[in-house]
Amino acid sequence: MSKVMILVASTGHNVKLASALADELTSQGAAHETVNIVELGLPLYTSGAEKHDVPDAARDMAQRMAASRALVFVAPEYNGALPPTLVNLITWVSVSGDENWRAAFNGKIVAIATFSGGGGQSVLAAMRAQLAFLGANVVGRQILTNYEKSLNPESAAGVLAQVLALSA
Fold this sequence. Notes:
Elements: E1 3-8, H1 13-27, E2 31-36, H2 56-67, E3 70-74, H3 84-94, E4 109-116, H4 121-133, E5 137-138, E6 143-146, H5 153-166
Parallel strand pairs: 1-2, 1-3, 3-4, 4-5, 4-6
């Protein structure tokens, strides 16, 4: 049984999507936890901020992500790119002070998902590029939902089954 961390970078529809994915992981017998990174309250990272003080929440997230076997990122599209909360988390984890901060990403099996008010393809491409750059193994299939395209439960089950199989 793999420990999967679902990181949701929004409120509203993306929280509902993350909840549906958590339910599917439960039905597949996988241990998981969901973290809404909006609720972490991380301060905005600015250049050199880590020299003054890294928030405990960033250190904690770096350790929790490193301890997870797989990650699922659920994020909306913001102006054709990643939401600021997700970029902020990634940045804080990368400067968390842990010498092995890359363990939060490197070699992790990752799935990406979105509920987007727009098309959603841009945020999925941006997540794929960012996470692959950090060393994550992003599975080929992704989950895209929006106002015109609801979640396909069979497709979501297949994506998560692949994550679980690859992270076993």
